Amino acid sequence: MMEETRARLIHAARKAFAEKGYAAASMDDLTAEAGLTRGALYHHFGDKRGLLLAVVNQIDAEMATRARAIGSLADNDWEGLLAEGVAYIEMALEPEVQRIVLLDGPAFLGDPSNWTSQNSCLQATWQKVEALTAQGIIKHVDAEAAARLLNGAALNAALWIAASDDQQDVLVKAIEAFRCLAGGLMEVPASLPASPSRRS
Length: 200
Description:
Helix content is 72%, strand content 0%.
């Protein structure tokens, strides 16, 4: 029952935040939408901000899962890593992602690097960087530093797109720059053979 209540509140909040924005979304309206009371919201999330954090973490985790699925289709591990970053950047065009994760998230929750979902993404990228270094594809630089810079570049590109008046134009520029910056990590900038296996 507790998990069901949490899920209902997150679902209602996600809909309200996407349609109205965090500031304009009424706690009474979203709890009524979920068929619950304010007391249930306070019990499970502390306050409205805690509910926003849960929604942001859910959407951000879904974005990471989708990006990994896209990356898994690439010809090799290096292109897979780049494809994940590009996919994350492209999701900045989606209205729900844009409003909740990229606009309201930083405005009301602060630095995204402190979000649970972003730290999970960092760990996954870190592992991929270590694997690519072991394969001799990435230069021997600090894996954590490389992972933080790659994730930070993708996130900041997405934030830039969300705040831009010409999002399609910014998207093209951001993806080109992201691939160029990431390419600097390569040991030998050349085409790579397909890998027999890939880490998830």
